[in-house]
Design brief:
The protein has a single domain, classed as Rossmann fold, CATH 3.40.50. A four-stranded parallel sheet has the order 1-2-3-4, sandwiched between helices. The two termini are 20 Å apart. Strand 1, helix 3 and strand 2 form a beta-alpha-beta unit. The chain is of the alpha/beta class. The protein has six helices and four strands; from the N terminus they run ααβαβααββα.
Length: 191
């Protein structure tokens, strides 16, 4: 589980409790720094290290990313060999195609989340590779952090639109959490 911009694992407190109650083991990871000062590919290296140091090489894993954390996980999966380790990947309010709110900061990691950035174009080149695993993007049309909200859905895997009142509620609202559990129970490797 990877949180988003300016978040740490505390954003997942309710989420972790809910998943554990459903029988899942959870391993949240705080990216540091998470405020855009460093490029997202550098943060993806932290995911790589976390996985390599914490799990057996043959252990298949499920990944959940919230907001910027989903983009960081995409880089890990698509560019750092993570697809070989993954069974399922779920994103919540992730700016797969960018967000106009990223123009509010000039920090390198935030610039990478702007619509049409070289970083996002690079990931889009082979986004279909996410179809090799069970991939679900969950988003709300009411999201004012990821703007336009529809950029949280891409044409790979399953897209789950949930009517939740705001961005951060994607990691606390029961409707969203239920969708994550359903996605994590899908057969591995299927769309």
């Amino acid at each position: 589980m990877v949180p988003g911009y300016r978040d740490d694992v505390s954003v997942f407190a309710r989420f972790v409790d809910y998943l554990r109650g459903q029988g899942f083991n959870t391993f949240p990871l705080t990216l540091a720094p998470s405020d855009g000062r460093v490029p997202l590919d550098a943060l993806a290296s932290q995911v790589f290290d976390f996985v390599e140091q914490g799990f057996a090489p043959d252990q298949p894993l499920d990944f959940v990313g919230f907001s910027m954390g989903g983009v960081v996980l995409r880089y890990y999966l698509q560019r750092l060999g993570g697809l070989a380790r993954a069974q399922r990947f779920v994103t919540l309010g992730t700016p797969h195609r960018g967000t106009w709110t990223a123009y509010a900061s000039n920090r390198p990691g935030v610039r990478q989340m702007r619509p049409g950035s070289a970083f996002l174009r690079n990931l889009a080149e082979d986004a279909e590779r996410l179809g090799e695993i069970s991939f679900t993007s969950i988003w709300t049309p009411l999201d004012l952090t990821i703007f336009p909200a529809r950029s949280s859905a891409i044409d790979v895997g399953q897209q789950e639109r949930v009517h939740i009142p705001y961005h951060r509620a994607l990691v606390t609202h029961r409707r969203s959490l239920e969708r994550v559990v359903a996605a994590l129970r899908l057969p591995a490797g299927t769309e």
